[in-house]
Amino acid sequence: MYALLGATTDIDDKLRAAREEIEKLKMLITQKTEGLNNRILAAVAQDLSKTGTYNQADAAKNGLFKLQPPAAFRLRRKLPGHFGKIYALHWASNSEDIVSASQDGKLLVWNTASTNKKVAIPLRTSWVMTCAYSPSRTFVASGGLDNLCSVFNIKDSVGWEVKQPHRELQQHEGYLSSCRFVDDNRILTASGDATCILWDIERQTPIRTFVGHSGDVESVAIWNPKSVFVSGAIDATAKIWDWRDGTGAEGTFKGHETDINSVAWFPDGNAFASGSDDSTIRLFDINAHQQLNCYQNQDIFSTVTSIDFTKSGYYLLSGYDEEPFCQAWNTMTGEKEPQLDQHPTHVSSLQTAPNGYSIATGCWDKILRIWA
Hints:
This protein is mainly beta. Helix content is 13%, strand content 44%. Strands 1-28-27-26 form a four-stranded antiparallel sheet, with no helix packed on it. The termini are far apart.
């Protein structure tokens, strides 16, 4: 018994020493990085504003301008129909249809122009966490706590209800947090088992597995022109991967203090943003391998649940689990812009339509909203 107590004391001492060492290393990192500007874009915008060149007249010369007056995001459609909290949504390539996933255990495919429901898909579990629309609009996919990625053929469906999955992709050892189609025969999934997998849908087999995160991978975003994707995880890092190569991440981006919940590409594919439990959104340049901006406010203490850029990249949109629920930021200055303020509770997902004309938000009040 005394030997066991002695061993416990020894472990406590080692743990205390390890914590002290961690704090020392944190202080050393702070000292080394002190003075480095992690809000380069905001600083540039401030300088241009002082010199009076941050305006639309000089946009052709320096590529920078300020909208006057600022854009006003107006609510255009409400899509009620789910009977549970909405957890995920994804636009179709035609910028008119949208798929949503809810705690009521259903995937619904909508036409946002008419607000009609086109297809309903009952799922095996109500604990769905993600959904995706294929580029040709033939398939939709979903996943959640069942550890499966279920792919449904909605183009060849008879009637408005699809009951059987076209394919089920099973290999992850943890929940499925995110999925995105590369094309109609390949889909990328992220999981709580800290891995991402690129799948051959028809063969139901993994093409490549991406291992590198030390915690649950919460979000993935694909950039097809360069055959790369970015992943964000609870290890507070974002990683860039080439899906043609499974040897390891091409880059690791740090800055957040805790879990990353959402990642999104800047429209030109040279930068991406990540949103975190630490109430901040950070913009990273993949070529300079450096943080360009940080979007935060002293009045916002909520978890960032979902992010996306407008098509021009001028605005960065963010969803939160508490007030302000949904906020637009000026990508350049880092300042708060118009608030999408008709959400009464947690906004779980948002996305800009491919054509850039609309924004969709999914809320825990069971309603999808379309903004323009």
